[in-house]
Every structure is written in C-alpha cells, then in structure tokens.
Amino acid sequence: VSARATGRGDDAVIVSPVTVPYVKHSPHRPHWFIAQALAGLLQQTGLRKDEIDGLVLSSQTLAPDKAIGVTEHLGLSLRYLDDICVGGASGVVALRRALRAVQTGDADVVACIGADTNRPGSFRDTVSEFSLFSRDAVYPYAAGGPNASIALVTAHYMRTWGATRADLGKMCVAQRQNALRYPHALFKKPMTLEDYLSARPIAAPIHLLDCVMPCAGAEAFLVVRRDHAARLGIPRVDVLSSCERHNAFPDDPIQFRSGWALDSDRLFADAGLGPRDIDFVQTYDDYPVMSVIQLEDLGFCAKGEGPDFLRRHDFTTDGSFPLNTCGGQLSVGQAGFAGGFLGIVEAARQLSGRNLARPVTNARHGIVCGFGMITYDRGLCSAAAVFARGRA
Amino acid sequence: MNANDGLASAARRGCFELQQCARCGAVQYPAREACRRCLSDDLAWRTQSPDGELIAETLVHRSNDDWYNERAPWRIGLVRLPAGVTLVAHVHAACAASPALVRVEARIDHAGRPVIVAFPRQRDRDAAADCVDWAFDC
C-alpha cells in the first residue's frame, strides 16, 4: 500500500476569485484575457505584479505560444510555471498543482488562470484536429464534434436508466434561473421547459439547449499560504480534499461513469465530510448528462438513480440541491479551458462573501468538478475538490 | 505510413482488419503505435470478426463538415466488438435501433478516408438493394 498523499490544501488556500467577462467572439488573443485576469487578481488583493511568482495557465488558443511565452508577453518573472491541457479538468488540476507549489515552497503566490479567445470558425478548427484518434476515427463520422460524442453517451444513459429529456431539461431550466442573477452570464433570458424541449436537434438526443456556447473570457484565482491571506486581510477558501483521474475505466464499452467513481470515497474521507454536508455542487456541465453522471459517481445518489434524483430535487440556488449557482457553462457560456475554472471561481465567491450570483444560504462547504478531453469516444479526465469557507 | 493506412488497404480488398498485438493478442482501435495492453510495437493488421453490437446511436443534424450538413440528419453509432474495442461507425438505415446486433465493414468514404460502416447482421435482398444508394463505395 502506497503512502498516498492527500489532495488537501492544508496551509495553501484560495483567494481572489476573478472573472473576465465573456463575449461570444473577440478580436483579441488569449494573452489579452490573461492580462485582464492578472490585473483583476492584483486589484482584489493589493499585491504588486512582481509579487506573483507562480503561474498555472490553461488555454487552448495560445498557439503558437505556450505558457512560457505569456511570461515574456506580460512581463512576469516566475519561480514556478505550469501549462495545463486537460480540457474541462484543467481548473481543478491547476488548483492541485498550485496547492503543491505553495505547500512545498516552490512559489508563494501562484496565479491560476483559464483563458481563451474565440473567433468565428475557430471552434470548427479545434474539432477537426483535436486529437490523433478523433482525427482518424471520429471526425470522418459526420464531424459532429463533442456534441455527437456526448449524444451517444446521453442516448445510452437515457435508454439504460430511463431518463427523459424533460428530466435533463429540468436541471437546465433551473441553471438558467440561477444565471439570471449572475451578471456575467451570456444567456440573460428566462428559459422554460417548453423552450428546452422544442429546441432544434443538434445530434439526437442532444438539442440546442443541451449545448454550451463557445465564447471568449477568463476565470482566475490565486493560491497563497493561509497566513499570507490573513496579512493581506482578504477572505480565503480552504481546500479540504481534491482528486484527479485520467483514462479511468478504459474497458467500459461506453462512458457511463468516470474517475469520480473511484475517488469519491477518498475525497469525502479526506474532507471529513459526507454528501449530506455539502451545501452546493458546481458540476462540469458541458452537457446535462455529464452533470448527472458526476452526481451519481460522487455518491449523491447511486448509479442509475440519477433520473429519480432529478425528479426529486430543485436545482435553483434556493432549492433543495443548489447546483451550478451562477448558471454553469450551459447558461454562462464556455470560454474554452476557462470553463473548467468557472465552478472554482463561483464556489470561491460563494464561500468568501464575494458573491455576484445569488448566495446559497449559510453555505459552508461546496464541491467543484472538472471533466474533459474527449479524444476518442469518452471524456478522459475527471477531477473534483471539496471547498470550505475559511474561518479566522 | 499513417496509422489508418492498414484499415484503408484492407477496405480496398473488401476485408475488415484491425491492428492486433503479435505478443499478447490484444486488438487495438483506433490504430496506434504500440499495444494498449503490453506496449509491444509489434502490431499487425489481422482479419477480425465483423459481428458486434450497436450500443448507442445518434442522428447528426449539425456537422462541422458541410458535406454532411447537405445530407443531414446522418446516422452514426458506437459498435462494440467482442474483441474489446468500441468503434465509431456510420450506421446503415437498415439497422434496427440500438441496442442491435450488427456486422461491420470497412469502406472508403467520399473523401478517400477509410471508415467503418455498420450493417444488419442478416442482409436480405432489400437491404442489399438499399446498399446501392449508400453514400460510400459499396
């Protein structure tokens, strides 16, 4: 038995949740969004630019640059640099790298930034050359991109466990209600279940309102030591536990679970909490079925009980199970790899009194998930973290 | 040589072949450089049983390739082979709704790429006639 390290933050904590407002298309490079994110982090903390000595960056539109090019572009001199490319899992994975860097003393102030730009047509280019396997063995099959890949997962899930479109739609409608209170959401109109059900088909059973809107934007936060946060006089969020898993269950014929199913017991044990102690969940909602799979794998209900769970709960911020309290990617938009940071930033706001969306009443603990990289027929990367409101 | 060239060359001969590890026997898909089980690079293109199960399907209404948008909706699915691999496949109209037993063939598509197509296991005369209308070389 290996002496497995915990995914706890211990003395390393999250401060300063920042969003660079999303736009559908932008003429800027991602460097612009990264700069805005950094400026926001400095403004919120009172730190000087030269006090940032670590950067964990995640962006899929940086080419031809890598993260190192950004240090020169923005005049950062660092002791620690990491470039995270695990799609929608990048936020939680970036957080875990930053926590380790601060725990070990490799850096004192680590900026974690997910940022991407979006130009007309750029999403199509991303899809056609996303991976070797997708180029050879997915794209030639009607080139539906991730919509078609997750349509297959969704069709299988619905058939196997009896979920209906209305079940999934209920969750999407609740998230839109949450988004109406969040100023940075790109979708600002109310959505009814009828709107959801009558949306045009994209790749059946995926319809338009099951899909995120690709956009440009950034999400960011800092990881520092607890005493540093106290000296700065800013609220902090503690990380009670975290996990990541890559290419879990490779022998499953089709995706109906991911790494959370292996890691959730340990995730809760390390946190000293159970599912009942969690006040809100920020799933990685690239598609509604993935949210349901996350809720099952994390133990909020058993595998296959997702449809019943959807019928029993109200997912609005004031409801019985507050979910994606700023509206999630389905209502805010998906700014590339920043999508994996959205839940972290929203959770950090909820737990540090910096709310932009409606606050969850008396929230003390939240879970954030990441999920990403459909390089062939399934998403390969899963990650999660349990947060707690920092106490003085 | 591209990883998919073996699939293409078999398709041109009317055969269904996938990479198989000469050391441990594991069948591989999509094509790759080393065995997913034992890391041997001794992967040979070997004839495989074409019988599988259509485990999920979708109709693609919105494609990133206009050739398909002009022919939408287009039926694709996942076919699981007993050899332990899942294939993304074009699904012929004569196939029953998933879950269904199917037989796969390798074909060359309109753009010259090798692709997998799922047909019903029992191809009667009607289905064979229908196949003439199939978009790809039949």
Structure summary:
The complex is a heterodimer of chains A (392) and B (138). Chain A has 392 residues and is of the alpha/beta class.
Overall description:
The complex is a heterodimer of chains A (392) and B (138). Chain A has helices at 30-45, 67-73, 90-104, 122-128, 132-137, 145-161, 165-179, 193-198, 226-232, 260-271, 288-297, 306-312, 328-332, 339-350; strands at 12-23, 54-58, 80-83, 110-116, 201-203, 206-207, 216-225, 236-246, 280-282, 365-374, 379-389. By secondary structure, chain A is an alpha/beta fold. In chain A, strands 3-2-4-7-1-8-11-10-9 form a nine-stranded mixed beta sheet, sandwiched between helices. Chain B has helices at residues 5-12, 66-69, 125-131, and strands at 17-21, 27-28, 43-47, 51-60, 74-81, 85-91, 100-108, 114-120. Chain B has a five-stranded mixed β-barrel. In chain B, a hairpin with a 3-residue loop joins strand 5 (74-81) and strand 6 (85-91). Chain B starts with a helix and ends in a 7-residue tail after the last helix.
Question: Which helices and strands appear, and what pairs or packs with what?
Answer:
The complex is a heterodimer of chains A (392) and B (138).
Chain A: E1 12-23, H1 30-45, E2 54-58, H2 67-73, E3 80-83, H3 90-104, E4 110-116, H4 122-128, H5 132-137, H6 145-161, H7 165-179, H8 193-198, E5 201-203, E6 206-207, E7 216-225, H9 226-232, E8 236-246, H10 260-271, E9 280-282, H11 288-297, H12 306-312, H13 328-332, H14 339-350, E10 365-374, E11 379-389
Parallel strand pairs in A: 2-3, 2-4, 9-10
Antiparallel strand pairs in A: 1-7, 1-8, 4-7, 5-6, 8-11, 10-11
Chain B: H1 5-12, E1 17-21, E2 27-28, E3 43-47, E4 51-60, H2 66-69, E5 74-81, E6 85-91, E7 100-108, E8 114-120, H3 125-131
Parallel strand pairs in B: 6-8
Antiparallel strand pairs in B: 1-2, 1-3, 4-5, 4-7, 5-6, 7-8
